[in-house]
Each structure stands twice: as structure tokens, then as C-alpha cells.
Design a protein that fits this description.
two-stranded antiparallel sheet, Rossmann fold, about 250 residues, alpha/beta, 2 domains
Length: about 250
Amino acid sequence: MLMDLRYVLKGLLLPPFTQVVVLLMVWKIRKRAPAIAKALFLIAVCSLWLLGTPVVATFLARSLEKYSALGTEQLGIIKADAIVILSAGQNVYAPEFGEPVSGAEQLVRIRYGAFLQKKTGLPVLVSGGSVQGGEPRSLAETMAFDLLKGYDVQVRWLEKESRTTAENSRYSYALLAQENKTTVLLVTSAIHMMRAKWSFEQAGFKVLPAPTNFRDRRSLNINSFMPNAGALMLSSEALHEWLGYWAYQLLEDE
């Protein structure tokens, strides 16, 4: 129930739902308060347009990418106890495989985690439970399946209970602290790293950020200013990360 409420609140605060609500308000008050209605209409349309443009979406995403990629030359000298890979979602309906497999974002993370494991030889922990409830298996189990079958990497620890980033950090610490492995290479998407690193440090880890899936740095062109669905999705994702990060700072827990 609590997770359902979280998703409802997230939907209410992020585009395009916010703009749709404003436009409905405009329709309701257009005759009683035409000046206010016009102002709200412009705000809704302009914000939707801007958030749907690649230039704005990329700016928002890059504002979260505080940690640089690890250089391959660094991997041989890194001092860490384990690699922790955070989940990001699975495709439950995958008839071609006959079982759930990692979604696109999660697959990017485990691909980089597998790369790091082969370069460093460090043991791997995967973290992620059943976020929505009712899935046939946890995100961690699906990650372990993909790592083994796709990259020939054996997972040592499965953290299968977490549903949020804060829980990822606490439950992972409960597993790794038992073996005195508290310095970790943390693998997650570049725009999620700021919030994830903060959470894992709060839990007690020393974190070496290992971000992946950086956003496009290509030069501006006319298409950069034309809205599209992909850019709107990226803007929503970036705003979600900023809201989550601020909430963590205020509440010190999720």
C-alpha cells in the first residue's frame, strides 16, 4: 500500500501529469478568471514543451552526473572489498527466455558490473527486491540470472528484500558488514549515483562511485529544440532523482 502511494505521489509531481492537471484547471476557470486561465495555459504548454526538448532534458540529467566514469587504468589499483550493483527493473513477460529478464536500464548496470568484476576480480552483490509485489522473482535474482547466463559472472550475495534506494543501502550493509566488506564499488546509472552514494554512505559504507549510462554529449542542432517523448521521459526521470535526493536530505530516510 505504501509503495502504491509513493508511485501515485510521484506521478502527481512529475510531467506530463502535472501539466494535464493544470490544463484541466484552465478549462474549469476559463470563464470566471480568463487572465489566470491564460497564464496557467502558457505555463503548462511552455513547461511541457521545454521539458520535452533534448536540450533541457540533457541539461537536467547532466546536473545529476556529479561523478565521472572510472578510467580503465584505475581498475587495477582500486582498493575495494566488493562490487554492489543496484537494480532498475525487469521484464516479467519475456516469452523468448521463458523467465523474467532485466529491463534496459538494469541491463546496462549489470553489463558494467560484469565488466568491473572481470577487471578487478571482486565479488559481486546484487540488490533489489520485488518493488511492485507479485513478481515471480526478485530483481536481484533476475540480475544474478543475467550476469551468469549473459556474462559468466557468478553473484556471491543476493539482497532480495529492498524496494527503494535507502533499503538497497541498509540491507546491503547488513549482508556485507558481517564479512567486514564495507568499501564497495557502487554500480548504478550516472543520474542515480548522487542519491545512491549518499544513501550507502549513510548506511555505513565507504563508496567508490562506478557510474554508467551517461547521457549523450552530442553537439546542439535543430532537433535539440524539438520536443519528443524520449526527452520528456528523461526530464521526468531527472526531476524524479532531484525530488528523491532532496527528500532524502530532509528526511534522512526514504
